[in-house]
Amino acid sequence: MPNRNKYLSIFYKEGREHLLSLQKGLLSLEKAPGDMVLLRELMRNAHTLKGSAKLVGLEEISAIGHRMEDLFEEIEKGRKGVDDKVIDLLLKGADAISRLIEAFSNNEDLPFDVPLFLQAFDQGEIPPQIVAEKQQPEPVADETVRTNVKILDSLINRLGELIINKKRFESNLLRLNECLAGDAEYLPELQQFRQDMEEDVLYLAYLVQELHDDALALRMLPLHTITDGFERMVRDLSREHGKMIEFTVTGAQIEMDRVLLEAVKPMILHILRNCVDHGIETLEERLVEGKKPKGTIKIAARLEEGGVNIVIRDDGRGIDPALVRKTAVNKGLLTQEDAAAMEDKGVIDLIMEEGFSTRDFITDTSGRGIGMSVVKKNLERLKGRLTIRSEVGRYTEMSLHLPLTLSMMEALLILCNGEYLALPLTYVQESLKIRAEDIITAAGKEVISLRGSSIPLVSLAALLGLPEPGKFFPDEKLTVVVLKQGGQSLACAVDATLESSAIVVKSLGNQLKNVHFVFGATILGNGDPALILNVPDLFAAAEVGITAGFAARLGKTEGKTSQTRILVVDDSITTRTMERSILMAHGYSVDIAISGEDALEKVAHADYDLVISDVMMPGITGFELTRRLRALDRYRDVPVIIVSSLATDADKREAMDAGAQAYIVKGSFDQGNLLTTVEAFVG
User: Most buried residue, 118, 193, 203, 610, by CB count within 10 Å?
Assistant: First the structure.
């Protein structure tokens, strides 16, 4: 008889493919029980499994396949209907065969009592204790060639080295051009040599790029490689919780690096479990709230900004900002005042911070605190980011933004303390040069104003713990790179910016994988190494309070902080918080009042240099507040700026008649407009 092991390996591969078809097909059949074409396809899968297993002597698998085929025939002949119980039974049959295949292929003992399983199958219900654990069949990609993953990774690394050498050729070509400018004797020969070399470098660049793209394509896999098993998981988990959930995936053909897919799979699974367990309401709750009995969970993937955006959305109870605020205060993460002043979007983002993974928080706010800080950190390690949107009673949406591959990336090369460093271009907002007078000192921190926005200024060398250069302002200008992460910006002072280009990402190895601020390295065209900075680490370090100290070194003093006091009056938390933040960032001392009456109470006990007020507030209006201020001797000449959504000429005339010096319409409001107006009155 031919080598039996040879046929066993063929069967294991074929068996896994049929199991995948069975699982996907059964979930589809549950939604379309009358689809006879699909039913016959499932019958063929079971029949082939039965016959092939018997042929190679795996009687246990053949017996289960036989039982499944018999059940499909009963459905076809109308003796059995397609319901949850029948689908459960067939899925458990597929699970059992999957576990047997894995056991046989690894030369392990039988993982469960097969005769007992067959007996339970015939009775129509399989207790959990018979098959203690479930193992889903692994998806098998179509039109693939099996190869050793280490060999594939090594191939891509070698191609990376080829790209680096191509850059060295380009660097040498530049040096040759410099030489041509000073050697007239051999000029014709050198010029011909340069032309030939340029053609060679151009062709090499073409070949390298084509080869590298092809090699990367070998490591690219479609998203459905990981999502195919999610529907079964959602189905089983929803049944455990007594919920009805429809699960869909769109954009599953988008391809990503295998390394990224493996890393992002547990993150998506974690979010899906939270959606089922805590996001989607019970049937009774949905009916009371007027929702459809069946909840929905959707995964949608699309290419975006040179990467992929994976959105996971459920139509469940959402995240309640009020409950998050309460938890934050109870845990000591926010003061009562800060929690009340924070916008809802910022409050929801708190669930991604450490300290919210508590049972109390899970119960109160849909459980999305569990491990979300871990998901966020792991995404950042992959050069991705997590954003959350939610509305109470309607939905929660989590977006995972990821690159397509980590093997190459666009980066900005910089010099810092004489060292070459690389910043991933996705985090770079812009680079610019600033003068000493562009730096504002506020409450011990330094900021720069960029198109009306206040951006913290730090020394990159100080963040990295490097010695700082003695001269910061060559030609009285400072080179700054503005980084962005989510809705935040950070200005980092550097020695110089060089060029932006595609770089090959080299791993630091296991010994250095936990090094702070760095996630990889690259080799430049001149042969010098450059560390690739981990930008989220820079933002985290800047939050701790590292300051640049540029103003002190230039002999500047804090001027506005102690000189100008401003009172902001507005009943809107969003408006007064935003105005207060803008003004404080530019060195002003700011108090807030939530109504006109509150403002009058405050001016009775303090002297302010400027008052900024809304118009429509509970109690007296901003116009009336202005009139009452003008009636006070101490505030007869204090400037008042009205900031309101009212935009008619009549409103502006009333403000002027009441004694206000300026009127800003909220619809056209921006930071620059507010600051320019304030400085016009108080400097």
Answer: 610
Under 8 Å between Cβ of 274 and 310: no
Q: Are 103 and 114 in contact (CB under 8 A)?
A: no
Residue 618 pLDDT: 85
Bridge-based pairing state of the strands 439-442 and 565-569: unpaired
Contact 562, 550 (CB under 8 A): no
Angle value at C-alpha 475, between 470 and 476, nearest 5 degrees: 75
pLDDT tens by residue, 170-210: 777 776 777 666 655 667 777 777 777 777 777 777 777 77
Query: Does the domain made of 409-553 have the CATH classification 3.30.470.20?
Result: no
Supply the DSSP symbol for 130.
T
Q: Around Cβ 116, how many Cβ atoms within 10 Å?
A: 14
Q: Torsions phi, psi of 382, nearest 5?
A: -90, 10
Instruction: Quote the Cα angle for 494-496-497, to 5°.
Output: 105
pLDDT, position 292: 94
Using only C-alpha atoms, the chain has a radius of gyration, in whole angstroms, of 33
3-class secondary structure, 42 = helix
Q: Which 3 state secondary structure label does DSSP give 48? A: helix
Return the closest-CA partner of residue 675 out of 397, 447, 412, 513: 447
Which pTM does this prediction carry?
0.58
Residue 553's alpha-carbon distances to 174, 228, 243, 436, in angstroms, are 39, 59, 64, 10
Which has the closest alpha carbon to 271: 361, 347, 371, 354? 371
Residues 283-289: what's their mean pLDDT?
92
Bridge partners of 302, per DSSP, are 309
User: 663 - beta bridge partners?
Assistant: 642
Asked if 580 contacts 567 with a C-beta cutoff of 8 angstroms, the reply is no
Q: Which two tokens stand for residue 492?
A: 């980092």
Q: What is the DSSP letter of 278?
A: I
Give me the helix-helix angle, 230-240 and 4-31, nearest 10°. Answer: 60
CA distances from 441 to 6, 14, 402, 460, 560 (A): 75, 69, 36, 18, 8
| Domain boundaries of the chain, sorted by first residue | 4-123, 149-219, 222-403, 409-553, 560-682
Q: What is the CATH topology of the domain spanning 4-123?
A: Four Helix Bundle (Hemerythrin (Met), subunit A) (1.20.120)
Q: Are 151 and 509 in contact (CB under 8 A)?
A: no
Check whether 359 has a pLDDT greater than 50: no
At 554 the pLDDT is 52
CATH superfamily, region 222-403: Histidine kinase-like ATPase, C-terminal domain (3.30.565.10)
**Residue 552: what pLDDT?**
57
pLDDT band at 435 (very low <50, low <70, confident <90, very high): confident
pLDDT tens, residue by residue, 108-133: 889 899 999 999 999 888 887 787 65
Q: How far apart are CA 282 and CA 267, in angstroms?
A: 24
Query: Contact at 8 Å (CB) between 446 and 547?
Result: yes
DSSP three-state, residue 525: coil
Residue 559 has pLDDT above 50, yes or no: no
pLDDT of residue 472: 53
